[in-house]
Amino acid sequence: MYFTGMLDFSTMKEWQIPGIIILLVDVQGIIRDVSREPEHFLIFTRNEIIGRRLNKVLRPITQATEPFMNPCAVPYKGFVPDELYVQVRHPSIASSDFSLFLYSFTPAFFKGKHRCALVFLARQTNNAPLTKKFMAIYRSENIPIIILDNEFRLVSCNLQFQEILNFTDIRTFRRKPIFPLLTKECRSPNPFLNEKRTRLIRTMACRQGQAWKKYFDLFSKGIPATPEAAGFCVHAGAVFSKKEKGIIIGRSPERTEQWAVLTTEFSTNTTIQDFEINLKIDCAKKCSFTLVLGHPLVNKSLRFENGYYLDVDINSATLFTFIRRGTVLFSRRVRASAPNLTITRIGGYFELSLDGKTLFSYADPYPIFARSPSNFSLIIWNGEMGLTRFTIRTRPTVFNIDDIEAADKPVVSFAAAPEKLYHFTTELISYLGSKSAIAVRFHAIKTFSLPKKKDSYLRLFETTRQYIEDNFYRKIDFAILARQCCVSQKYFIKLFKEYFGLSPKAYQTDLRIKEARNLLKSGIMEIQQVGETVGLYDPVNFQHIFKKYTGRTPGSYRTSR
């Protein structure tokens, strides 16, 4: 029963099982030891984990997991419940990130005089059905959410949405169109189609921008002998072997991981930059790989962010699959001996081309932007990858999300409570095997009363304030926000300061400095990365503004903490 009696805990830091992290937890729920290289998956380093409570490192994804977060206190019944899932509680990971681990544990046992248990964390990859399932079910979120099928019938909803309906029996609406639940003026045209929004994004992508500049070229200095010489950070071990006009990338025999990961040393920020990636692949080599379109690096460890990526499977034919947060948006199998593949991102617009012909284009009505500057990654799952070209070009973006929001800020109200207004966002998802489904998140437009006569503007200004809080790290066009509030920019600044105590720009800067202080305190990023993450890209300007607000330079603030 207790196989733990056969384990040598003195060497636990050397234990390594591919894809598995093992934690030794005592009866108080404190982590006493951890297996090898936890930062690859948990982001926390070994020293940061040991001594922390388990529930300070991991958060339960579902309510079913919560009773088992102190395994030593759980009466053992001969088995561990199925489908327990957790997520890392790291400062660099937002609560909306879906980096999942299957959670399991042993019965409690004695290590010397101390009662302990082993916790096993199995990383769930993007392609795992369980990950797709949990990324598609948003029932545990704290805002109203519904799931609609492709005919806009209600499939599922959470408790917060039922509160909007004043706890109407949702069974009477399940598998029926959502529109009767809306007020009459919101039913037509269909508000959830996002037709105007996607049309604006496609139009914006066609704008004439600045010239593209080469950001990365794998063969700029000839054929590289090593990943480091090519400008990659190596995360799971990869080796290069030269061929006549290119290279073959395979997994290092010295590493035990089941895949190879290559990440560019240089980063880009998709909120202010467009990018174009060009690969020429030698299909003589069979392989399966994923091109990840943006992963931040934290302390030289790859931070998982579930955004956009392209899966390529090369066999007798080549299968291209474009995925957004675990949901397949496009998949096609083609025959090509040496495909010249180009993928372009312009804000919320994506285009996949093969040998100069467009295979797929997609305008994301609610695009995902990383909060941090991101690095591109190439993950080789199996086989060897032959490459004769790999370049990345960038330019200042022609995309402006403020213009999109100004032209199309969807608002709905419900027949059960017509006086309450909600903004909403939609997202295509994979839902329990459904061919297609839509998750709709509703955000209440907050209002509150002040003892002033000019409160007719307050609802608009409260929405604007919330927008600044959600987008403080981006460049915000305050003139557009003023137009949304139906006032001149001068009067907008005056009223905003009257309502909230600071001008809009000062309010944004205050949020940036608060976030910068938290990141500096955590120590997870270099100082320049902190500035870029909060939207202050010029290091000198970041130093100046931070000192103006705190009285210290970022370096001295970090040292003092």
UniProtKB/TrEMBL annotation:
Pfam families named among the record's database cross-references: HTH_18
Family matches, as InterPro entries: Homeodomain-like_sf, HTH_AraC, HTH_AraC-typ_CS
An annotated Gene Ontology molecular function: DNA-binding transcription factor activity
SMART domains found in the cross-reference section: HTH_ARAC
Transmembrane segments: none
Domain HTH araC/xylS-type: 462-560
Transcription regulation found in the keyword field: yes
UniProt keyword terms in alphabetical order: DNA-binding, Transcription, Transcription regulation
Highest taxon of the lineage: Bacteria
PROSITE patterns named in the record: HTH_ARAC_FAMILY_1 (PS00041), HTH_ARAC_FAMILY_2 (PS01124)
Protein name per UniProt: HTH araC/xylS-type domain-containing protein
Organism: Candidatus Raymondbacteria bacterium RIFOXYD12_FULL_49_13
